[in-house]
Amino acid sequence: MQVPIKEVVSIFKRNIERDKLRNTPSRITILKAAYSHKGHFNAETIYNTVKGDAQSVSLATVYNTLELLQKYGLVRTHKFSNQHTEYEATLGYAQHDHMICLDCEKVVEFCDPRIQMIRETMGELLEFEVEKHALNLYGHCRKASCEKAL
Amino acid sequence: MQVPIKEVVSIFKRNIERDKLRNTPSRITILKAAYSHKGHFNAETIYNTVKGDAQSVSLATVYNTLELLQKYGLVRTHKFSNQHTEYEATLGYAQHDHMICLDCEKVVEFCDPRIQMIRETMGELLEFEVEKHALNLYGHCRKASCEKAL
DNA sequence: TTGTGTGCAAAAGCTTTGCATGTTG
DNA sequence: CAACATGCAAAGCTTTTGCACACAA
To answer: Nearest nucleotide, C1' to the C-alpha of B65?
Structure first.
């Protein structure tokens, strides 16, 4: 269920036109770089991906643009246990949550329909309009490949 | 269902002895300060609470000790959307999750038994021993007191 | 006494900001 | 051409680290 990058760009352009912001090469470059990563990435990753290319960008612009993309719902942000903010593309990817191994820090994605029910129940009960959520399960994976951090 | 602080201290001491670590005044002070806060707090909060007291501590020690308390299951840590790590006491407090208002940043606690089922299902499916989880719902509260951040 | 814990200040890491310069519409 | 966006470097914040001194066991 991949969405063509052209369509993503076109959605982005529609958003910035509506907001009377500017369609700059840097922004498009960062958007494309964000969608070229399969899983999670951070600002530094994008910066390094693009650095050296014809259209390279500054780290500050990466941060600014990722925030813009988040406002438009084109990327999600996560705070796992490490220091920096992790991002991921949303369009064409199913809503999902994360299981994180406390030993090897592997991150596995999963879906469970019951989370949607919890959102609805709690939204009603607490009188919130729930917009998004983050569910992280932390544990120990039983894979042989799991290398204990210590 | 408050647990007397004496009991908390005694549990802490038992852990320290088992690990052959040292029972220092600073550690006890920080433990007590952590349990004197009702909700969430951060390292700076603890530091300020204790600063000026007979037994004051350094910020570095606060961080070290909070990490130790987390290992012993005496505090939980959270990363909401703001910069710093938030902590909360666990003993005597029911396991719960958080609803966060994107406008006024209010945090409301809730419980939903279905989260336990998700933990079990996903632990089995993905072959993880789930140890803990964090579920944050983000949305807009409909209270009059809600002041839009902007 | 011995090694662990503490405090202080400096360093580190991620993110934001200020300002002069470039570019878009 | 006016306003917005960018790049660079510096500042900001939270958290970690190094080292000399203090102190629990």
So the answer is: C5
Same domain, A19 and A82: yes
Residue B34 to residue A31: CA distance in whole angstroms: 43
Asked if residue B42 and residue B24 are part of one domain, the reply reads yes
Residue B17 shares a structural domain with residue B74: yes
Nearest CA-CA partner of A47 in A71, A22, A65: A65
Say yes or no: B14 and B49 in one domain: yes
Query: Which of B102, B112, B121 is the closest to A112 by Cβ?
Result: B121
* A23 CB closer than 7 A to any strand D atom: no
Q: How many domains is chain B built from?
A: 2
This model's pTM is above 0.85: yes
Q: Which residues of B touch A81 (CB under 8 A)?
A: 79
Q: Select the residue from B105, B116, B126 to test the A interface by mutation, using most A Cβ atoms within 10 A.
A: B126
Interval B47-97: pLDDT, tens: 999 999 999 999 999 999 999 999 999 999 998 878 899 999 999 998 899
Domain residues for B101? 97-139
